[in-house]
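Title: Prediction job returns without error message
Component: structure pipeline
Severity: low
Priority: P3
Assignee: unassigned

Description:
Job completed but the reporter wants confirmation the result is attached to the right record. Sequence as submitted:
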Amino acid sequence: MKAIFPGTFDPFTIGHADIVRRSLSFADEIIIAVGINVAKHTIEERDKRLEAIRKLFSDEPRVTITSYDGLTADFAREMGADVIIRGVRNIADYEYERNMADINRHLTNIETVLLFSSPELAYVSSSMVRELIQLGKPVDDFVAK
C-alpha cells in the first residue's frame, strides 16, 4: 500500500514524525509531500524543510520526501496513492481534518486515514519550538529525531 502524507510536515513537530513512523506499520511506502505555498514561505525555507525531513528519515528506505504544488487530491492521484494520511494534533484540528478527508475522498476516491499524534507528543507545536529557539532555550526534547 502506498500512502501519502501531504501538506505542512514540520520537522520541529515531533508528532508528525511519530505519525509517519506509525504509518509504516500499515503502508509499504510513504511519500511525505510538502506543499508549496509561495505566499507563506520562500523556496529557501521549503528547501531547508525538505532537507531536515530527509535527515529524519535517512535510514528508512520506505519513506520518500518531495514537494508539490497544487491540490493534494491531484498530487495523490498522480503519485498513485492508495491512502492519504492526515495528522491530527488535537481535537480542535479533528473537524477540519475530517472535512479535508471528505473532500479528498470525493475528489479522488482515495481513502484518508486520520492519525492523532501519540499522546506524549501531541502537546509539542512547531511554534512553541521556534519560540524556545528564539529565546535561546534547549529544544532537544521537542525536536523530531
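Comment from assignee: result matches the submitted record. The mean pLDDT is 80.
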